[in-house]
Write a structure and sequence with these properties.
It is a single chain. 37% of the residues lie in helices and 19% in strands. It is α+β, with helices and mostly antiparallel strands. The chain has 3 domains: 87 residues, no CATH class; 207 residues, Nucleotidyltransferase, domain 5, CATH 3.30.420; 124 residues, RRM (RNA recognition motif) domain (Alpha-Beta Plaits, 2-Layer Sandwich). Strands 2, 3, 4, 5, 6 and 8 form a 6-stranded mixed sheet that branches. Strand 2 and strand 3 form a beta hairpin. Helix 2 packs across helix 4 and helix 11 packs across helix 12. The chain starts with a helix and ends with a helix. About 10% of the residues have low confidence.
C-alpha cells in the first residue's frame, strides 16, 4: 500500500478503472459504493480521472484481500515497465520498436494486466540483461474460445505460425469445464470435433512456454484475449490492433483483423458470416506485423467504418445485470416499448449476466438511451454507455450498464429501398396492396364509400380516392402514435429521475 500512496495520479486512475472493470470490492464495496460514503453530494462524478488523488488512494486503501493487493502490485509493475521503456535510448530493431509501441500504447495497461496470482497462470521469464531481450524471433498466435456453464470462456483451439508462416502448433483443446455454447458459427468447432481430443490447456501451456523461450516475440491481433485464454503472461508482444493508426476523432478505435487485411494486405480474410479460421488468422497477424516492419505507410490506411447490421441499431446492450434481477424487470428500468433477449455469457464469476433490449426502430432505441439517467461514458471500442441506478417496485435496488450497439461513424447495413430507374422498371408494374383490396369490394360497397351528395364516379376514380383516404388515415395514425410515444418517453424519464432521487436519499 506504501507504493500506491507514492504513485502518480495517472497510475491511480488506471488501478481504479481496472478495479471497476473487474467488479472488485473493498470493505466499503465498489467504487460507486465508496463514493456514496466518501462524498454523498458527488456520487454522480464517478470518472476516476476527475477525482482527487486523495479520493483514489482512499478507495484503494479499503482493499485488504491478498489477491486484490497482488493485482494492484501488478498494475504498478506494468507502469514501472512503461517508464523504463520511455527512458530507453538504445537503437532498436524494427521488431523491438513494435514491441515498445504495443506496450507503450495508452490501452496497454487496461487490457494487459492479468490476474497472474490466480491458479493456473504462467509467466514467462524476463531477464533485462540477457541477450534474449534483443531477439527478433517472432511467432504469431490465434485462439478460439467456447462459453462454459459458469459463464467463463475456455480455450478450444490454438494455432501458432513462425515468421515464414509455417505451422508450429495447431491443436484442438479439450475444455476442463462443461461447455454451454461452442460458438460453432465463429470458432468452426463443434462438440463432435472434440470427442477424441485429449490435449489440455496445461499441454498447450507447456508447448507455448517452449516456443516463447529465449526472448521470442509473440504476435497477435487483440492478443490480450489469446493470452487470457492461454493463461500466460508474456511481455515481448506485438498487438496488431494497437500498432496501426486507426482513430475516429479523438477516440482510439481498434480495427478488426479483417479490416486491416483489406486495408494493408489488400485481401479479404473472410466473408461476412463465415466462421474464423484460427490458422489463417494467425498468419494474417504475422503478415501485418511484417508489413509494418517493412514500412507500410500508416497515413495511407483509410479510417474504415465498422459495418453494423441495421437490426443492431434497434438494440441496447444491458450488461452487468445482477443475477437476482430477472430479464423482464428491465422493463421497469429502461423506458420505451421493447422485448428482452437474454444472452448466455454471464460475467463476474456468474453473479452478473447480459441481455439485449430490442426496440422496433433505431429512433426508439436512441430515445430510450437518451431517457436514461446515468453517467455517460464510452466502452473500450468507443460505444456510448451509461451506468444507471435503479430501484424496482419491489424495493430492490442496484445498478446496470446500458450500451448502444453502434458508435459514431459506424456504417449501418440497410436493405436498399432505392426506386429503380426507368430502365430497371418492369414492363408490368406491381399493383399496390390497396388496389388489390379494392378489387375485392363489391359494386354495392363502392358507392357507400362516396359522399352521397356527389355524383357517382367511375370505379377507377373511386379506387384513387379510396387510396388517398387510406393514406391520409395511415399518416394520421402515425402522427398520433408518435405523439403517444413521446408522452410515454417523457413519463419514463420523470419516473427514472424520481427513482434516482429516492435512491440518493
Amino acid at each position: 500500500m506504501e507504493k500506491i500512496e507514492k504513485a502518480t495520479k495517472e497510475v491511480l486512475v488506471d488501478i481504479v478503472k481496472l478495479a471497476q472493470k473487474r467488479g472488485m470490492k473493498g470493505s466499503n464495496g465498489g467504487w460507486k459504493d465508496f463514493l456514496a460514503v466518501y462524498d454523498k453530494n458527488g456520487v454522480s462524478l464517478s470518472d476516476p480521472a476527475r477525482r482527487s488523488e486523495e479520493a483514489l488512494i482512499g478507495f484503494l486503501k479499503t482493499f485488504t484481500n491478498a489477491d486484490d493487493l497482488k493485482f494492484f502490485e501488478k498494475v504498478l509493475e506494468n507502469h514501472e515497465s512503461l517508464e523504463h521503456i520511455k527512458k530507453k535510448s538504445d537503437k532498436l530493431s524494427p521488431e523491438q520498436e513494435l514491441v515498445y509501441k504495443t506496450i507503450g500504447h495508452p490501452q496497454y495497461t487496461l487490457t494487459y494486466t492479468f490476474p497472474v496470482h490466480e491458479e493456473g497462470w504462467l509467466v514467462t521469464k524476463s531477464r533485462k540483461k540477457n541477450k534474449a531481450t534483443r531477439s527478433n524471433t517472432m511467432i504469431a498466435v490465434d485462439c478460439e474460445m467456447v462459453l462454459c456453464e459458469d459463464g467463463t470462456e475456455a480455450l478450444v483451439r490454438v494455432c501458432v505460425v513462425d515468421r515464414d508462416l509455417q505451422v508450429k502448433l495447431d491443436e484442438l483443446v479439450k475444455p476442463e469445464k462443461v461447455v454451454t455454447d461452442y460458438r460453432t458459427h465463429i470458432t468452426g468447432v463443434a462438440a463432435k470435433d472434440l470427442e477424441k481430443v485429449t490435449c489440455s490447456l496445461q499441454d498447450v501451456q507447456i508447448s507455448m512456454m517452449k516456443l516463447l523461450s529465449r526472448g521470442t516475440i509473440l504476435v497477435g491481433h487483440s492478443l490480450n484475449n489469446d493470452l487470457q485464454a492461454l493463461k500466460i503472461e508474456h511481455t515481448r508482444i506485438i498487438d496488431t490492433s494497437l500498432i496501426f493508426k486507426f482513430w475516429s476523432g479523438s477516440n482510439f478505435r481498434r480495427p478488426s483483423l479483417n479490416d486491416l487485411c483489406k486495408s494493408v494486405l489488400k485481401y479479404e480474410l473472410r466473408k461476412e458470416g463465415a466462421p474464423h479460421d484460427c490458422l489463417e488468422d494467425a498468419r494474417a497477424a504475422m503478415k501485418l506485423a511484417l508489413a509494418k516492419i517493412q514500412g507500410v505507410d500508416d497515413n495511407a490506411i483509410p479510417l474504415t467504418q465498422n459495418e453494423v447490421p441495421e437490426a443492431d441499431t434497434m438494440k441496447l446492450l444491458c450488461h452487468r445485470i445482477p443475477i437476482g434481477i430477472p430479464g423482464e424487470k428491465l422493463l421497469e428500468i429502461i423506458p420505451g416499448d421493447f422485448t428482452v433477449e437474454l444472452k448466455p455469457n454471464k460475467k463476474a464469476g456468474g453473479d452478473r449476466y447480459t441481455a439485449l433490449a430490442v426496440f422496433k426502430s433505431k429512433q426508439e432505441a436512441d430515445d430510450a438511451f437518451e431517457g436514461l439517467v446515468g453517467d455517460l461514458a464510452k466502452d473500450s471500442s468507443g460505444r456510448p454507455q451509461k451506468l444507471i441506478y435503479f430501484k424496482l417496485d419491489s424495493g430492490v435496488a442496484g445498478s446496470i450498464y446500458v450500451r448502444k450497439m453502434v458508435q459514431d461513424g459506424d456504417k449501418v447495413q440497410v436493405v436498399s429501398n432505392k426506386r429503380p430507374s426507368e430502365d430497371e422498371m418492369p414492363t408490368q408494374p406491381k399493383k399496390l396492396k390497396t388496389e388489390e383490396t379494392l378489387k375485392n369490394l363489391t359494386e354495392n360497397e363502392l358507392p357507400s364509400r362516396l359522399n352521397t351528395d356527389e355524383k357517382p364516379e367511375s370505379k377507377e376514380s373511386v379506387q384513387c380516392n379510396s387510396c388517398d383516404g387510406y393514406m391520409r388515415e395511415i399518416e394520421s395514425l402515425k402522427k398520433k402514435l408518435s405523439e403517444r410515444e413521446q408522452e410515454i418517453s417523457m413519463l419514463h424519464k420523470i419516473i427514472v429521475s424520481q427513482v434516482r432521487k429516492q435512491s440518493d436519499l
